[in-house]
Amino acid sequence: MPARRCWGVIPAAGIGSRMGGDTPKQYLQVAGATVLEHSLGALLECAEIAAVVVALHPEDSRPAHMACFEDERVIIAPGGAERSDSVLAGLEALAGRAGDSDWVLVHDAARPCIRGEDIRRLMAEVNARNCGGILAQPVNDTVKRARDDRTVEATLDRSRLWRAQTPQMFPLGLLRDALAQARERGGAVTDEASAMEMAGHPVLLVPGSPGNLKITLPADLPLAAWYLGHPEGV
Ligand code: C5P
Predict the structure, then answer these.
(1) Considering only CA atoms, which of 157, 163, 172, 173 is closest in space to residue 216?
(2) pLDDT for residue 2
(3) How many CA atoms lie within 13 A of 49 on its CB side?
C-alpha cells in the first residue's frame, strides 16, 4: 500500500471584520511579514507536507507580491462565503493529486505563531493513534454559560474543556464528506473537528502551545509579535 502523504490547506479568504480597518487580518504586518506569510511559511517548512493549498478571496491579488507564493508547493484555490466553504474548495483543489486516505492539515491563515514542533507533535500523535486530531489547549479559566439576558445559567466543568486551535489533521476523504454533509445540514461549522464530530468520527486532542493564538482583535498583533520573537515559547 502506498504511504499516506500529508497536504496543507490554509483558509485565507476571510475579511476579518472584528479587526476593523480595510486590510483583512491575514495581510496585516507582524514581525517583518504578513500574518499569512508566517502561517504559510510554517507549513512549507515541514518537509513532510507535499503541498499547501491557500484558499483566497477570488478578487484578492495581494499574494502576487509575496515571495512564498512562488514556492512550487503552493496551490491557490478560490475561497467561499464561510470558512468551511473555503476549506472545502481547498480540498477540492487537491483532487487528482492527493488520495482520499492521505492526511490533510487545515491551518487558519490567522494563526501566524504556529511552531514546527507543535505541527510535528500533532502529526506524530495522529499517526501513532491512526485517529484524526487537532492542536488544542486545556481551559484554565472558570467558564460560564450565559442566558440571553447575560446572567449565568451554569458553570461548566473546566477539567474537560479544551480550546480548539489549528492545524487540524484528518483523512482527506472523510473530511471532505463531513464538511459537505455539514453544509447540507446547515449547522454551524467553525472548525473541521466539528464537522467530523457531527459525522460521528473520533477527534484526538493534542496539547498545543498558548502562543498559537488566532489574530482576531487589534490587541492580538503585539502579542503575536512577541511570540514570533520568542520561538522557544513560554
Ligand atoms: O473569522 P475567523 O477568525 O474564524 O477565520 C479563520 C480563518 O478562516 C481565517 O484564516 C480566515 O481568513 C479564514 N476564512 C476563509 N473564508 C471565509 C471566512 C474565513 O478562508 N469565508
Answers:
(1) 163
(2) 62
(3) 31
Cite the DSSP H helix spans in the chain: 35-44, 83-92, 116-129, 172-185, 192-198, 220-229
Pairing of strands 144-146, 152-155: antiparallel
Overall pTM > 0.85: yes
Assess whether the C-beta atom of 110 lies below 6 angstroms from ligand 1. yes
Distance in angstroms (rounded) separating the CA atoms of residues 172 and 147: 38
Closest atom of ligand 1 to 110 CA is 10
Concatenating the DSSP letter of every residue in 39-80 gives HHHHHHT-TTEEEEEEEE-TT--GGGG-GGGGSTTEEEEE--
User: Is any atom of ligand 1 closer than 6 Å to the C-beta of 89?
Assistant: no
* Residue having the nearest C-alpha atom to atom 6 of ligand 1: 108
25 alpha carbon – ligand 1 mean position (Å): 9
Query: b/e per residue, 201-222, with b = 16+ CB within 10 A?
Result: bebbbbebbebbbbbeeeebbe
Residues of the chain with pLDDT under 50: none
* 38 touches ligand 1 (CB under 6 Å): no
Q: Is 109 touching ligand 1 by the criterion CB < 6 Å?
A: yes
